[in-house]
Amino acid sequence: MRNNVFNFCPDCGSRNIQTVQGGRKWQCPDCGLELFSNVASAVGVVLLNEDGKALLVRRAKEPRKGFLAFPGGFCEPDEAAEVSAVRECAEETGITPQRLQFIGAFPNTYEYRGIVYKTCDMFFEARLPGQFELKMQQSEVCGTEWRSIGSEQEIASIPLAFDSARKALLQRIGCLPQEEL
Questions:
Q1: Nearest one of 89, 175, 103, 174 to 140, comparing CA atoms
Q2: How many C-beta atoms surround the C-beta of residue 100 within 10 A?
Q3: Which residues does 3 contact at the CB level (< 8 Å), separation at least 6?
Q4: Phi, psi of 82 (to 5 degrees)
Q5: How many Å apart are CA 93 and CA 96, to the nearest integer?
Q6: Per-residue pLDDT averaged across 1-24, rounded?
Q7: How many CB atoms lie under 10 A from the CB of residue 180?
Q8: Could you read off the pLDDT of 71-117 as tens digits, one per residue?
Q9: 2 confidence band (pLDDT: 50, 70, 90)
Q10: Phi-psi label, residue 174: left if phi above 0, alpha if psi -120 to 50, beta otherwise
Q11: Cis peptide before 63 (omega within 30 of 0)
């Protein structure tokens, strides 16, 4: 499958598989298969230090390799968003955030190896624990930066990997226009 198009039905192998609803659904007239491309859940943690600066990670792989993002990733099946946020942050940074506060949820497009995944990215804010040691997961993170995120200008200056993170930061400071929700 490339660009969300199947060449063969994954159930019966028929070449008659049809891509419908803009690549969100596949149906096979030969065996009756209906397969849906549902939205994936993802999380990000805006982890703040005592100066109010946020920890950003530099992505070590595609998509958007080299751009900045918040520690986070995809939710596992049967996993609550808050549990995913804590797990992903700990995996990528070695820091276990505590007392998460929900910022907001925003749609995102995550293209990887020619396949487009639509996601619902949920963002949480947390303070650093009293004692921590930063341990980067090298397969996911190739660097970190502490950045100020208190104004629209500061947010605009950050080369963020995904627009959903920009929207979360603007929501956090009360500057997200209603039409971007």
A1: 89
A2: 20
A3: 23, 114, 115, 116
A4: -65, -40
A5: 8
A6: 87
A7: 11
A8: 999 999 999 999 999 999 999 999 999 899 999 999 999 988 888 88
A9: low
A10: left
A11: yes
